[in-house]
Fold this sequence. Notes:
- The chain is mainly β.
- It has one domain (1-34, 49-293): Thrombin, subunit H, CATH 2.40.10.
- It is 8% helix and 37% strand.
- The protein has three helices and 18 strands.
- It has helices at residues 6-15, 145-152, 269-274; strands at 57-59, 64-69, 78-83, 98-103, 107-111, 117-130, 136-144, 157-158, 169-174, 179-194, 197-205, 219-222, 228-235, 248-250, 256-257, 263-267, 275-276, 280-281.
- Strand 2 (64-69) and strand 3 form a beta hairpin.
- It is globular, with a radius of gyration of 17 Å.
- It starts with 5 loop residues before the first helix and ends in a 12-residue tail after the last strand.
Amino acid sequence: MRRPLIGALLAVLLLGGGAAPALAAPVAPAPGAVGTITDTDTAAPEPRLAAVDFAGTVALSNCSGSVVRTPQSQPSDPALVLSNGHCLESGFPAAGQVIVNQASTRSFTLLNSAGTGVATLRASKVAYATMTDTDISLYQLTTTYAQIQSAYGITALELNAARPAQGSAIKVVSGYWKRIYSCSVDGFAYQLKEASWTWKDSVRYTSSCNTIGGTSGSPVIDDATGKVVAVNNTGNEDGARCTLNNPCEVDENGTVTVRQGINYAQQTYPLVACLTTGSVIDLNAAGCTLPKP
């Protein structure tokens, strides 16, 4: 988990003085202008197939993120922002902890295709967050997809309902640093362990996605479809084994592999089955495999 300076201090306070996880958290917040939202509804947006840029990404106070939708989302649904569980303003969720429908007024700087902040969006709640099995936070906003599109001409990024394929070309788009990393899916870690947390079926990047602090929560976008397939979250910085900032891979037989300098993401297709009408998380929905409280 990648968390420099401000985030590292927070981690020390939360974790009793240990080193901060490789979770992302930058030094200073990215600028953004407050925009005006209208109530105009529009037709459901077409899937994004254009070249990957910054449109729809957001900057948080300590991480990156993106405005996301499922294939079934309606224009009138409250918009959702995807980031990491470790990026929560309340601190890192403990292993085994799942947060559902927790009130929040967090703000996000919405970026356009050029990476310019065009609006400040605000959360109404944390719809879902955990660092168990995955590292995800999903904020529900006070504005709808239609309102964002009408006011700023920005369409939410679509979550791919399918698992990404090994070898597929991807981009990691950081709204905090306004930087895009290009690489491929190198493979998948059966388990990825970092300190007290364990994540399952994590995406491993090829080495050119050398993500840094502040990129946590960035959407991982498939080049071919323009859809979100994962959310960037960690990397092994020092070559240590299964410690904070140094996740290790564990295979089905318990064999541990350390890959110094290699970075990882958590797959997002499981979210699709758990999101229902009105951007509501239903952990009992058919096919939903996200951890429950």
